[in-house]
Automatic annotation (TrEMBL), chains A, B:
Residues 75-434 form the Aminotransferase class I/classII large domain. This is Probable LL-diaminopimelate aminotransferase, chloroplastic isoform X2. One of its GO terms (biological process) is systemic acquired resistance, salicylic acid mediated signaling pathway. The gene is LOC111312354. Transmembrane segments: none annotated. Gene3D superfamilies: Aspartate Aminotransferase, domain 1, Type I PLP-dependent aspartate aminotransferase-like (Major domain). InterPro entries: Aminotransferase_I/II_large, DapL/ALD1, PyrdxlP-dep_Trfase, PyrdxlP-dep_Trfase_major, PyrdxlP-dep_Trfase_small. It comes from the Eukaryota. It comes from Durio zibethinus (Durian). Keywords: Aminotransferase, Pyridoxal phosphate, Transferase. Pfam families: Aminotran_1_2.
């Protein structure tokens, strides 16, 4: 077994993301001498509740720290799920044309609609939500799914109850804490009060046992899931929608990785009949089109979705978008339109296929070590199980022994303990090199 | 007098932005038949408090409505402050190069730092905050000032007290309401409870009487001001900083129009000694570089600024940026860097000078009607007084008689009643045409 060779050290309790709250006072802050007089403004109690740093900057920090100690190490970064392959020419040409047009009287554009350019909204409705009856008016173009999670949290406010998958993308929990939906953090359980953690692992086919899940106002649900890579089946999503209907809940469905689905799993919650009355969908061009740095996404709020008093959610979300956002960059939007053209879409399929071939290579490498490996079929993430081990220790040991950066599953919630997430984004030669380094450990 | 000829109609009480709260129930929402079953999710009480639509979409709506009734009208849009002049080539060439690089292995970039590219942060520190001792680490690159206002509100949370200029840019008040800092709206006064409205008009040289202003945790202050066009003098800003220090308040200073200052008024709050201990500054490339559609801005949070418990504000803002934002578009950031190059900066000065020449033309036109005209000297906005009149009526009448779109001052708060804001953004020939149309009214 892999861990018997690599991780012979005793796994110490994982306290990395469980740093005790620091107690700040004007005296200790002044110790550094550059800090000025204290204001009399109270620190936001919600931010006070948040533990440690946001996961991905924390990974970057540890990576940098490692590189300082080991300047000659040839790192392979399979941690933060960041795209690496060039964007097809047809898409950057469209953006370059838009950019250069901004230097002409005819091509100059100032503010666009806060909700996005109508041509793009129509293209998303037509190409991504074909046959699902989603209207262009229900699509709000954004600068990315993570940003829209926060805008949705501003929409929902502090007085809603929330459930989320455990493990899950940390922005859901952290933004819940920031807007005041969460209670105190419990060091014992590794969970915040008031939030319902829906455990999703191989034992339940990565789908929560809804018969024991309490009702909440909001259910965050990500499929294909980040970090587990599991795409919910049609049957699972039908159950989820029925559960939300029975409880009068709103599902916030994150489909940022939908383009990676290779089987018959739904690409959108709106493939499920009745979902429009209970679901919002957030999505993104980041992983679909390599737009992680370009910044473009969207959110669908169906007109049918209404609060308990009958008020349409779309009206409030429109107000949030108009007040707290000023539209996505018009350059990025021109790129988004090109992504959805016939040729652009096909070119992107090739990039996605490339990443999914990487995923296969990594699944094979970890499997060859005798480990249980999940994901990698409908998502660019591989979720590897290290039974009984602390995921931050596994993260550190893999980094030290192979110079491969992963993400400790614990960073995605207590349900991620014993796992690491491995990203399939990368150049093929680096993925092959990662595979070689991994396979070598087991035979050393 | 202008208004005796143009606005002979009796000014009815202005109820436009004071629509009564609608009472929603599942029965009336279902009347439209497309609305589904109600969820059991309560509508956010803060959004329930918000009145009417956000100002600028409301202006657009009225503009569209007018055009439908008058399809042949040749509208001149001096309403929403939207840039109209092409971006200098040197800047769009830099962006196009960045974009096309994304199609190459060498030039491809994924996620950047959430806080912005260090080269841009350094350039902002060096070029905009020269000699003010602001470090690159204290600068957070954003997708625009309006978006950062909301992120700052998430930072501050519901439990702070807030003061703001009246009139002021509506995003401050609306975002205050959304995060729960405000009380109920009072139809009599046109003000939300719990917010302190600091009246700024010609009677006090557009600077509040601080001797009668109650202490608040946060003071939103915009200079050059939108909508009045007034740039606070050094003396005024010294008073403001002293007031904040005495009260332990945090100033959120909006310098989005600083590039338009033509006299000795400070371009940044950080020109005032001691400001780093009491101020955050938000700013933008939108008006400085015609980036309204490109989306780029920044926020400065000095390390010296600390909460009452000594905790540095910058640490919490960094956490908000990392959790709720994923960085500005790397294309826009490449453009921002070009804006701050020697040649880029000079090219932009020419565009700003062009708009300020427009401002002069408009100031002259309104002045020639015997009206009191403010602004237009340090800002691209002209603030015109119509004593005793309702600003939405003035807006409508100017639209009907001259086909010029302005903004009713009332949209910026009760202190804006009797005023309209006129934007100097526009092509010269249209500004001259607007001037002709305006001057014609007075002699009709």
């Amino acid at each position: 077994m892999y861990h018997s060779q690599l991780l012979s050290s005793i796994c110490i309790p994982c306290a990395v993301l469980l740093q005790p709250k620091k107690s700040w006072s004007s005296s200790n802050s002044k110790a550094g001498t550059t800090i000025g007089d204290c204001t009399k403004v109270p620190r936001n109690v919600n931010l006070e509740k948040l533990r440690s740093g946001y996961l991905f900057p924390e990974i970057s920090r540890r990576e940098s720290e490692y590189m300082q100690k080991n300047p000659d190490a040839s790192l392979i970064r399979l941690g933060i799920g960041d795209t690496t392959q060039p964007i097809p020419d047809i898409i950057t040409l469209a953006m370059a044309e838009q950019v250069r047009g901004l230097s002409t009287i005819q091509g100059y554009r100032g503010y666009g609609a806060e909700q996005g350019n109508m041509a793009l909204r129509k293209a998303i409705a037509g190409k991504i939500y074909q046959d699902m009856g989603i209207k262009a008016d229900e699509i709000f173009v954004s600068d990315g799914a993570q940003c829209d999670i926060s805008r949705l949290q501003m929409l929902l406010g502090a007085n809603v109850t929330v459930a989320l998958q455990d493990p899950s993308f940390p922005a859901y929990i952290d933004s819940s804490v920031i807007v005041g939906q969460a209670g105190e953090f419990d060091d014992e359980t590794g969970k915040y009060g008031n939030l319902i953690y829906m455990n999703c692992g191989p034992e339940n086919n990565f789908f929560p046992d809804l018969s024991t899940t309490p009702r909440t106002d909001v259910i965050f649900f990500c499929s294909p899931n980040n970090p587990t890579g599991h795409a919910a089946t049609r049957q699972q999503l039908k159950q989820l929608v029925a559960f939300a209907k029975a409880n009068g809940s709103i599902i916030v469905y994150d489909s940022a990785y939908a383009a990676y689905i290779t089987d018959e799993s739904p690409r959108s919650i709106f493939e499920i009949p009745g979902a429009k009355e209970v679901a919002i969908e957030i999505s993104s061009f980041s992983k679909f089109a390599g737009f992680t740095g370009v910044r473009l996404g969207w959110t669908v709020v169906p007109e049918e979705l209404v609060y308990s008093n009958g008020f349409p959610v779309i009206k409030d979300f429109n107000r949030i978008v108009c007040t707290c956002f000023n539209g996505a960059s018009n350059i990025a939007q021109a790129g988004g339109l090109a992504c959805l053209s016939t040729d652009g879409y096909q070119a992107l399929r090739n990039v996605i296929d490339y990443y999914m071939e990487n995923a296969k290579i990594l699944v094979d490498a970890f499997s060859s070590l005798g480990l249980s490996v999940y994901g990698g079929k409908n998502a660019p993430y591989i979720w590897v199980h290290f039974p009984g081990l602390c995921s931050w220790n596994v993260f550190s040991e893999i980094l030290e022994k192979t110079n491969i950066v992963t993400v400790p599953g614990r960073g995605f919630g207590p349900g991620g303990e014993e796992y690491i997430r491995v990203s399939a984004f990368g150049q093929r030669q680096r993925i092959l090199e990662a595979s070689r380094r991994l396979k070598k450990i087991s035979i050393d």
